[in-house]
Each structure stands twice: as C-alpha cells, then as structure tokens.
UniProtKB/TrEMBL annotation:
Name of a matching Pfam family: tRNA-synt_2d
Annotated HAMAP family: Phe_tRNA_synth_alpha1 (MF_00281)
Protein name: Phenylalanine--tRNA ligase alpha subunit
Originating species: Sediminibacterium roseum
Class of enzymatic activity (EC top level): ligase
Length: 343
C-alpha cells in the first residue's frame, strides 16, 4: 500500500516532465497511462488488495491521480493538434523570424523620379492624365492632321467598342488637358505610360514611358528651352556631358529640335550604343506651335511656350547600360536585383 503511494508520486514526477512535440507522441502518452492496459487501470486494479478501512482514503488518491493524468493528456492534446500548431499561444517569440526579402525600386521608376525631381527644382509641377484618351486630346489638339502617319491603325491601339477612344500614344494628351483647364503661366511635366502598336523586340515595345514638359508664359524663348534642357542633362548625367541640338519636325512644335548628348559609354569616341557617331539622341523639343495654343484659347500673339519629351527607357538605358527593352517588363529578379539600394 505505502509502496503504491510512492509509485504514484514517482509517476507524477515523470508525467509532469513529459512533453510532446507531435500528435503521435500524445497518443503514445495516452496508451501508456490511460489505455486499457495503461498505468492508471493497473493501479486501479490494486484497489482489490487494499484493506477495507483504507479503501476510501486510497480511492481518493487514485481518483486524484487519474484526474491528474487526464488533465495532462488534455493539455498535451490541445497543444499538439494540427490547428493548434502555429497559433499565437504556441509561437516561440524568441525564435528568429522568417526572412522577408526587401524589394527594390524598378529602374524605370528610379529614373522617372530623378527626372521629376530635377524639373521640380526648376518649378515644374507634375500633371497626370488618363491612359485611355479620345482622338482630340491625343491627336487633334496637338495639331496632328487627319492624315498624319501617327494616326495610322498600324501604330495606335484603338478601343474596339469605340474607335474614337485609343490608348494614348504620348503624354502630350496630358499637356492638352492642362492647357484646357489652366491659364498661363503653365509649367508642368507629364510622366506616364504610353502605347504604340509595335512588334516587341530588344529595341521596341508596345508600351513605354515618357516624361514630357510644357512651359507657356509671356516671352518664353528658345534660349529658355535650351537652358532648361542643359540644366537637366548636367543634373542627370554630369557636367562633362556635351549637348547638341539638331533641327527636326514635330506637328505640335515650330521650330523643333532633337537633342543629343555625347555618348556616355565611349565618351564620344564611338561605340555600338552611339552607332560610332559619339552622340546619342535623348529627347525631342521645340517651341509650342501657335495652332496648339489657339486650340485652347491661349492667345498665341501674347504667349509663347516650349515643350519637350523624352523616353524614360532611353534615359535608363544610357544611365544603366540596359541593352534590351524587354528586360523592363519581364519581372526577372536577376535583373531587378541589380538596382538594390538605389532610391
Ligand atoms: Zn558611344
């Protein structure tokens, strides 16, 4: 009898120390202590040998022991069910967390933000507009005549339900919306995505990004345009970069010019990027055509303005020497990871 009481104390110590990590271990515990051939049953069987006058006392001890084992089993079971694993009660907060990989800014966004910040310092505000445009804002208001090749079905994505809607082919449509609602002085840049129906290759894509700028006020001259763009190039590419303007044609500016910078790769000596000329084209620009100003009720005898537009992909290609336009939209982390830490 005393021996059994001692055994119960030893078992209690064992049971208190027992821990289970899996539902299988909990089941082992149940079989060992609470099963039909388990320890609790065996000790209960000892009741037969207990003298009558001590049966009550002994029965109490055995009941307590049984309850003790059942409570332990219940707590093991609750903490080892599949659902319980991972609830807050079971999380060891001192363990190191699962690593979360920090993303990186997309190279096009890095460059877009740099362009925006340079022009903001010159007092340009940022304007944005819809990517689905109507014919007027994309073409008509911008002085593109009906037979202009840019209107060709080959080059523009028209919306099939309503052919007078299209995916904007340039962010000039945003300039149109600004001139529609604001009076000079106007000084905005328009960053955004634009669409052209081009075959996708290393050098062309069906969508790309532009930043266009517009400055309209009294006495705005071509000298202002040049000074603004010189400042931009020096801030973007450094003081050593040379700049040249070439006469060009755009329907919405007159006169128009394309701007080249000296090749950053070969420093003007000639390489594949600059097609061995030492120069690379980075943007188009010009004085806003009087017809465009008049389209918005801005008096072209009183006001003048300049406009420019550049491709963000082009600037990014030059800055980071990206050779294939398709890399920008493939979501390949091997490419994107190379911009880690750039903000
Ligand atoms: Zn070169």
């Amino acid at each position: 009898m005393e021996q059994i009481l001692q055994q119960i104390d030893t078992h209690k110590e064992e049971i208190t120390a027992f821990s289970a990590q899996t539902p299988e271990q909990v089941e082992e515990f149940r079989i060992k202590y609470l099963g039909t051939k388990g320890l609790v049953k065996a000790i209960m069987g000892e009741m037969r040998n207990v003298p009558n006058e001590r049966k009550k006392e002994f029965g109490q001890v055995l009941n307590d022991f049984k309850l003790f084992v059942e409570e332990k089993y219940e707590s093991l079971r609750q903490s080892n069910t599949r659902e319980a694993k991972g609830t807050s009660a079971q999380i060891d907060w001192s363990l190191p967390g699962d690593p979360i990989t920090a993303g990186t800014r997309h190279p096009l966004n890095i460059v877009r933000n740099q362009i925006v910040s340079i022009f903001k310092r010159l007092g340009f505000a940022v304007a944005e507009g819809p990517e689905i445009e109507d014919d007027w804002h994309n073409f008509g208001a911008m002085n593109l005549p009906e037979d202009h090749p840019a209107r060709d079905m080959q080059d523009t994505f028209y919306i099939s339900q309503n052919p007078s809607w299209l995916l904007r082919t340039h962010t000039s449509s945003v300039q149109a919306r600004v001139m529609e609602t604001q009076k000079p002085p106007i000084r905005v840049i328009c960053p955004g995505r634009v669409y052209r129906n081009e075959t996708i290759s290393a050098r062309a894509h069906c969508f790309f990004h532009q930043v266009e700028g517009l400055y309209v006020d009294e006495n705005v001259s071509f000298a202002d345009l040049k000074q603004t763009l010189y400042f931009f190039v020096q801030e973007m590419f450094g003081n050593d970069v040379k700049v040249r303007f070439r006469p060009s044609y755009f329907p919405f500016t007159e006169p128009s010019a394309e701007m080249d910078i000296s090749c950053l790769i070969c420093k003007g000596k000639g390489c594949n990027i600059c097609k061995h000329t030492g120069w690379v084209e980075i943007l188009g620009s010009g004085m806003v055509h009087p017809n465009v100003l008049d389209n918005f009720g801005i008096d072209s005898n009183k006001y003048t303005g300049f406009a420019f537009g550049m491709g963000v992909e082009r600037i990014t290609q030059l800055k980071y020497q990206v050779n294939d336009l398709r890399l920008y939209s493939q979501n390949d982390v091997r490419f994107l990871k190379q911009f880690t830490g750039v903000v």
